[in-house]
Every structure is written in C-alpha cells, then in structure tokens.
Amino acid sequence: MDVNRIIENNKDKLIEDVLKLVSYESVQGEAKEGMPAGEKVAAVLEETLAMGKSYGFRTMNVDGHAGVIEYGEGEDYVAVLGHLDVVPVGEGWTKNPLGEVSGDRIYGRGTMDDKGPMVAALHGLIAVKESGAPLKHRIRLIFGTSEETGGADIVNYLKSEKQPISGFTPDADFPAINAEMGILVIRLSKELKDHNLLSLEGGQAVNMVPDRASVRYLESGEEKSLSFEGVSAHGSTPHKGKNAISALIRGMKEKPLFSDLKDTLSVLEYNLAMDLDGHNMGVDLEDEASGKLVLNLGKIKLENNHLDTYINIRYPVTFSMEDVTEKIRSIFEKEGFSFEILSHDGPLYYPKDAAFIRKLMDVYAKETGDESEPLAIGGGTYAKMMQNIVAFGPLLPGREDTLHQLDEYILTEDLMTCARIYANAMIELAK
User: Which residue in 347, 350, 275, 339 sits closest to 309, CA to CA?
Assistant: First the structure.
C-alpha cells in the first residue's frame, strides 16, 4: 500500500493525536531538574515520546531538551525538526485554545506552530514504516522544547548527537525556504524622572505584534489608565497586525499630561512606531536574495522608573549584524538610552538548486501541482540550528496565516496534505 493511502486511512487518528498534544499548554516555565523548559513542556514531551513508542518507533529523551522518534537503520540520518513549546495563548479566543475541531478546521495553540505539523510528520513516518519503502538512512523526528524563547534545546541536542545529512523543519511556509533573514532582539532602556506614571506595559513576546498595551498614571491625585488594543501577528510579518504599543506611544504623546515625557515618547514614535522597515533610522536594507529589513516593536515595560523597550529585527541575508546595530545604537545612545543586543541569529542561505532542496521541491510540486520557486522569509526557524535543514511548510500558498494569533487553526485538508508531502519527502531524502 502506498504512503498516501495509509495516511488517509489513519486520518481520524491523526486528528486525535494533534488534539492530544495541543491540549497541553506548553509555554516555557521555570527550569527544574530534567525539565529545562519547565514542567508543562516536559509533560508534552513525555506524551509525544509515549505516542511514538505506541506506534512501534524507537524513542529517546535528550536530557529534557529534546525528544527523538526514530525509524530505520544506517549510520546517517535524515531529520524532521520541530518544536513542542508554544507562545502564550493570549485573551480573546472564540474557540478552545487547547484544541477544538470546528467544521473543516482544527483550532488551538500549536495546531500550526508546531504541534500539528509535527504530528503530520509522525503520521507520515508511520506511513513510511507500513509501506516498507526501502531506505538507506535512518529517519529521525526531533522535537525541541524552547524554540519560541530562543532556548538552547538544539544546541544541547547536538552535544551528544551528530548532525543530520539533510532534512527539514515544518515551521514556516511552503514551498521550501532557502533563505532566512538574520534576527536581532534589542533592548533600549532609559531611566525616567519627574513623571506621573504608575505602570506602563505592552506585548507578551518580542517576536509577536503586541495586541494590548496600557498605562496607569496619576492625574490630580487620582489614578487613571489608558488601554489600547491591536491585532497580533508574527514578528516577521508585522504588516499583518496592528501594533498596540505604537498606538499607546502616540496616544500618550498627544496628551499634555505627559509633556514631561514628550522627548522620550517622540524618539520611540519616530524611530520605532512610524515604519516597519527601519527607514527612519536609516537601516532599511534590502537585497535580491531575501528582500527588505523588517522591524517589530514587540514589548515595553516600566519598572522602578526604568523603561525597557524591546525590538525584533529581521535583516537581509547579504548584510551583517553591524550594518543594522551601529546606526540604531548611535541614535538611541545620543537620546539617553542604553543599547543592548539580547540575542542574534545570523542569516541562513542555500542555493535554490542544492540537491536536497530540489528533492523537497519535486515532492511538493508532485503533491500540489505548484511549481513555484523556493522562498526567502524573515521568520527564523530551527533550520539555522542544524546543517542541511530548511523550513518546509506547513502553510500552503493562499492560506490564512494564524501563526501566534488568536484562534490559531489548521485546515484538516491541509494537515493531510502536509502528512503526504512529509512522508514522500522523508522517503526521497532517506532512500
């Protein structure tokens, strides 16, 4: 029986397994012994490995940092690399964020990013096993635990495990992605004096467009507040959202009550809230391989008179980190801010005609009829953490992108398409 038919026969079980993993609210928590990403992430990791074992696969827990489900023999292996941690649910869902089937959709945090696609890969591997397809290399599904928070899960995995010879991560768009921009997280801090603020905060994660921001303050001895709502989106596509922090800064700047903070607010507004490509700061870089720089104002918080503002930048693959950071540093240090790079992931780039990318593209084209070229993205994936890995799905062209958003979902039809593509891709890479 071919892999596609096996996957179709297991459709109900595939959906059931997605819902089982999505039922875990696996947001990173306090690290504990053997649980570097916290108890909730550790729990879903154990559930995933038990699931793999129930289907007859070899499994391994790599010191709590990652889990492995493996099939086949051979010295080398092909990898499918995904993650089990999720971003916070947030408020305002109309469906169950811990899993719900409604019509032709499966809702829940992680259905697209990244539990649903990894379960699709698991069922693809089940089909590979049941089909008896001849393989030269082992196939490993690797489940990371701290992708959303930039943790050291894959770094720790590679301390004891060798690199794969090729593979993919189902954590972006179709078709294959051969270029990923460099990613920066920067903190801009300033001590505030002579103000009437009690609190100011917005954003949940720096790689998300903030959907809420608020300030509490004193006016004539009375406590008052201002709140702003936005629309969440992934930090790599801020144009798809509406930034609540930007709205908060503008709203405060317009009120005479905050005139003592006008200079600080003006600096933040002009440089961070006026555009999404950094052109006001002179860092609107662009190249043919990956496109234009992307800027997201992700978080802001006032604590003990200390204002911290966090920005997430994706820069084109042919530029260096310093091409971006030095101009921003100069601008903000002149205005009394301190500048700190919290994290940096360099760019990734493979030629479009690399052998393993062509195999992925051929499988995708055969399954979908779409013969598009490989893509470049601003999002950062696990592809940067391992050799010969590129992002590959799960978002099909023309589909709504609900990554990191309220009512995240995946179409059941697309989940099945992913499973078929991933099964055939694993065979092509491993045979």
Answer: 339
Smallest CA-to-CA distance from 387 within 124, 146, 76, 67 is with 76
Confidence of residue 420 (pLDDT cuts 50, 70, 90): very high
CB-based contacts of 342, cutoff 8 Å, min separation 6: 185, 186, 187, 310
Chain centroid to CA 345: 13
Cis peptide before 394 (omega within 30 of 0): yes
* The listed CATH number (2.130.10.10, 3.40.50.2000, 3.30.70.360, 1.10.3720.10) that belongs to domain 182-345: 3.30.70.360
List, for residues 58-74, the tens digit of each pLDDT value: 999 999 999 999 999 99
Q: What is the pLDDT of residue 390?
A: 97
Q: What is the pTM of this model?
A: 0.77
Task: Return phi, psi of residue 185, to 5°.
Answer: -120, 120
Model confidence pLDDT, tens digit, residues 335-380: 999 999 999 989 999 989 999 999 999 999 999 999 999 999 887 7
How many Å apart are CA 147 and CA 150, to the nearest integer? 5
H runs (alpha helix) in 254-387: 262-268, 321-334, 355-368
pLDDT band of 1, cuts 50, 70, 90: confident
Cβ atoms of residues 390 and 162 within 8 Å: no
Residue 186 banded pLDDT, cuts 50, 70, 90: very high
CA distances from 327 to 171, 273, 281, 299, 318 (A): 32, 17, 7, 21, 17
Amino acid at the residue 411? L
DSSP 69: E
Helices (H), 81-160: 115-131, 153-160
Q: Which residues, other chains included, contact 210 with Cβ-Cβ below 8 Å and sequence gap of 6+?
A: 202, 203, 204, 230, 232, 243, 244, 245, 297, 298, 299
CATH topology of domain 3-178+348-430: Aminopeptidase (3.40.630)
Cβ count within 10 A of residue 63: 12
Spatial separation of the C-alpha atoms in residues 21 and 28, rounded to whole Å: 15
The set of catalytic residues is: 85, 147
Peptide bond into 170 cis (omega under 30): no
